[in-house]
Every structure is written in structure tokens, then in C-alpha cells.
Write a structure and sequence with these properties.
The protein is built from three helices and three strands; from the N terminus they run ααβββα. It is α+β, with helices and mostly antiparallel strands. A hairpin with a 4-residue loop joins strand 2 and strand 3.
């Protein structure tokens, strides 16, 4: 479902933007059975995000007018999922071809 809506890519973009490792996160998506139409289409769902290193689990409401990605990004910025564990690039002076004297 998230792939169809483009939200998985948005989720991964937030992880990249904040330097978090994708493999540390697991997503679980469930349709919200309380809401539905006669045609059977239910635009509401819940996204559960699990972060293995911190054992943090948080649920976000998804669907029409529910920007769960923005709420997830805010939680990342506020440190709910700890600090990123991706090593930062070394300074330019330390990269190959740039040696210190």
C-alpha cells in the first residue's frame, strides 16, 4: 500500500535526509477497519514504525489528510529514534588524495 501511495519512498527519503540506516527500521501497515465505504475502499490505515536499536515502536495514522510522514520526520528530529548511526563522511582533507602534512 505504501509503495502505491509513494509514501515508502518519502519515508526512506526522511531516513536519508537525517542519516539513519534503513535496515534499522521496520514498517507494519494495517487498514483501519472502523472506516470503510460501501464499495469496500478504506482510505485510512495505521503505520507502525519499529526502530530496532532503540526498541522504539510508534504508530501513525495514515490516509486522507493524514500526513504520517511529517509526524514521523518530526519524531526523528526530536530524537525519539535516537541518534543516527550512519558514519559521517570524513572531512575533505582526510579523503583519498588529500593528505595532511
Amino acid at each position: 500500500m505504501l509503495e502505491q501511495l509513494g509514501e515508502k519512498e518519502d519515508f526512506e527519503a526522511e531516513l536519508n535526509r537525517r542519516s539513519y540506516r534503513h535496515e534499522e527500521f521496520t514498517l507494519h501497515v494495517e487498514r483501519d477497519g472502523r472506516f470503510g465505504s460501501r464499495a469496500g475502499w478504506n482510505p485510512r490505515y495505521e503505520v507502525q514504525v519499529e526502530h530496532a536499536p532503540t526498541q522504539t515502536v510508534r504508530s501513525y495514522a495514515g490516509g486522507t489528510r493524514q500526513d504520517w510522514i511529517a509526524r514521523f520526520a518530526k519524531d526523528l528530529r526530536n530524537g525519539l529514534y535516537g541518534e543516527p548511526r550512519v558514519p559521517r563522511s570524513p572531512p575533505a582533507a582526510m579523503r583519498k588524495g588529500h593528505r595532511r602534512a
